[in-house]
Amino acid sequence: MIKLLMAGIFAYLLGSMSFGIIIPRLLGTSRDIRQEGSGNAGATNVLRTQGKLQGALVLLADLLKGALAAWIGLSLAGVAGGGVAGIFAMLGHCFPVFFGFKGGKGVATGAGVVLVLLPKALLIMIAAFILAILITRMVSLGSIAGAVTLLVCMLFFQPPVPIILFGVCAVALVLWKHESNIKRILAGTENKLGKKNK
How far is residue 119's CA from residue 72's CA, in Å, rounded to a whole number? Predict the structure, then answer.
């Protein structure tokens, strides 16, 4: 139990490192990315407002912090530790203690966790993500498609229970954080790649 607690605390603090805020500040292009574009501290908003280089850096950093959190969780407390660390890393990303509990939507961080806990599912999730974007040009719909695909992958691959619990919680968190996007998708007003945020 102590090791699980340690894994969760460490993962939350690591997840709270909001690279969507940190990288634009370090490069001197934005004092607070949450005051620009969609107001989200994630790679997509950084891409749209700060350019491809910063967007790629944020995406990579967020993915790596999720992978690192899951790996440390596994090392501390096995599969259960990996699952706990995974969801707490995503919670840290979404609600960062270092940045007023206002962060991103957890997609890239969650992908990093999946890379460690269920790597064979990640390629399928990425394929669903890319396909949805190619068809709709909506990154949000791609993120939702990728997340939901994780549930399908878990049914197919039947991973250990802690990973299933992580997956269900992770998908629920991503869908909840995309609530406003889902409403805009249904209304036909969601932002698309190549267009400025409304």
Answer: 16
